[in-house]
Amino acid sequence: MKILVMQLARFGDTFQTWPVAKSLKRNFPEAELHYLCRKTFSGAITPLNCIDKVWQLDIAQNLDYILNNDSSTDNIEQYLDELSGESFDQIINLTYSPLSSYITSYIAGENTEVKGFTRHDDGALDIPDDPSALIYGQLGVYKFNRIHLTRLFSAVAGIDLIEEDWVVTEDILAEGALRVPGLPSRYLAVHIGGSTHEKLLFHSQWSEILNSLAMANPELSFVLLGSSSEVNFSENIKIEDSSRLHNLVGKTKLTDLFHVIKNSKLLLAPDSSLMHMASLLDKQTVNLSFSNVNFWETGPLAKNSYVLWNKEPKSINSSELATAINEILSGQEVQINHAKIKEDSSVEAYELVGYEVEDFQWNLIKAIYLGENFPILDNMNVYTALKQLSELTDMALRDLEMVRSGQFQNVQLEIINNVDQLIHTLEKLVPEIRPIIWWFNTERLRIGPWEDQVVFDKNYDIFNQLRALLSVYVGTSLIAPQLTQADEPPSL
Questions:
Q1: What is the C-alpha separation between 312 and 202, in angstroms, rounded?
Q2: 414-443 confidence digits (pLDDT tens)
Q3: How confident is the model at residue 383 (pLDDT cuts 50, 70, 90)?
Q4: Which of 34, 48, 317, 488 is least enclosed, having the fewest CB within 10 Å?
Q5: Cα–Cα distance for residue pair 53/57, rounded to 1 Å
Q6: 479 CB-contact burial (10 Å; exposed 0-12 / middle 13-18 / buried 19+)
Q7: What are the DSSP calls for 436-482, one per residue?
Q8: CATH topology of 2-164 equal to that of 170-353?
Q9: Over 60: is that where the pLDDT of 463 sits?
Q10: Model confidence, pTM
């Protein structure tokens, strides 16, 4: 049996697939496990000893072909033909991008079981499994999903993760110890970088935070970590006792950082690959997160980890943040608003402390995808929108019935397009119902380029599923008794 795992994103996403790869090897010990990644980020997967073969795709070398379908550039075709020749029994695409779906479709054989995004024969997107449908419809910044990406990766792969799937081998740690000797006896590992510009603190903020921590913890040193592109930035970070600031920015190999993080008191980092390395080590992490990241999906998973959230780096109060980190170091209750990793294995990884959040959309997602109870509705605007959506659904089903009975001719597409426009208007007016609409749109997208009658029947079935979902609220007892008329119901 040959299995190919595909992850064409960056370092952090690749590290988040380690537990999945280990679990696959644990569950299928006789399987030949391959891994496809981008050459630029291959350093995040080559140390993993459960992988039998790593395939490295050189995106830069084939950029003209990828962007312009330049037929004169045949390097990527030869490469993919070689991959296709492996005749994989299973391909697990954990990259949710158009490029990855085309690659998956190209190399999959007739008998290959595909999980994750691929393509139909006509080039349309194919979402073959339910976890990938959830990812397509509900994941992302400014959406409402709270299931961690690592857990979703395992659901796509169809395996369960256990504690041993997170272990970093001793040989990797030993290599780092040889290359990075002389670390302080007690230190914080501090990652000053981030995967995008919007996740970076200013050097003045780092200086203030670390100086405050140094004054409160005289035995503590600080080891700065980052890439070679961040060397100049790191040199502007200062504390009063410079002997306690150890700058390793640009001086380590990627895998050396496992050793540095493992031996630290904790890791202090924005949303970055090092945070995911710390999760593999089960090293406590304080994640500095911002509004351009959904920390529910990509935050730290190590025990006793925290997320300290701000809208953007410039809104950070360095003094308050330093106090919160001190409270974490000393095991005290954190006073500012934060998210803390849960000790149990519930669906969402974190509990919120101090935040007032609206859970209705998240509870809808759990009800739709996980079979949990639907949330009580206590907002008249939302109820009115759901009622209008139900009426639109009934109208579509009535017209589709007339098409089926022969009373309408060649109007199926027109009916559905009109309903789609009205549903889109409702989605903009009432954000609370978006998880339902995103589910509906994704399920419609999953209809393949099949015969007309099959496409008709699938559309009809999905509208019926939508009607059944809406019937939970329209004309049932899931309406809060205190529900009162809002100012103005949404209007189409």
A1: 11
A2: 667 778 888 888 999 999 999 999 999 999
A3: very high
A4: 488
A5: 13
A6: middle
A7: HHHHHHHHHHT--S--HHHHHHHHHHHHHHHHHHHTTTTTSS-B-TT
A8: yes
A9: yes
A10: 0.91
Which of the 8 DSSP states describes residue 188?
A: E
Residue partners of 220: CB distance under 8 A and separation at least 6: 186, 187, 188, 213, 214, 244, 265, 329
Quote the mean pLDDT of the chain: 91
Tell me which CATH code domain 170-353 carries. Answer: 3.40.50.2000
CA distance 266 to 279: 11
Per-residue burial over 78-109, b = 16 or more CB atoms within 10 Å of its CB, e = otherwise = ebbeebeeeebbbbbbbbbeeebbbbbbebbe
Q: Pairing mode, if any, of strands 2-6 and 32-38?
A: parallel
Residue with tokens 């961690």: 148
Q: What is the per-residue pLDDT for 489?
A: 45
Type and span of the H or E element at 189: strand 187-191
**CATH match of 2-164 with 3.30.70.20:** no
Q: How confident is the model at residue 486 (pLDDT cuts 50, 70, 90)?
A: very low
pLDDT at 63: 57
Instruction: Show me where the domains of the chain are located.
Output: 2-164, 170-353, 366-470
DSSP string, 347-366: SBSEEEES-----HHHHHHH
Measured distance CA(270)–CA(472) in Å, rounded: 41
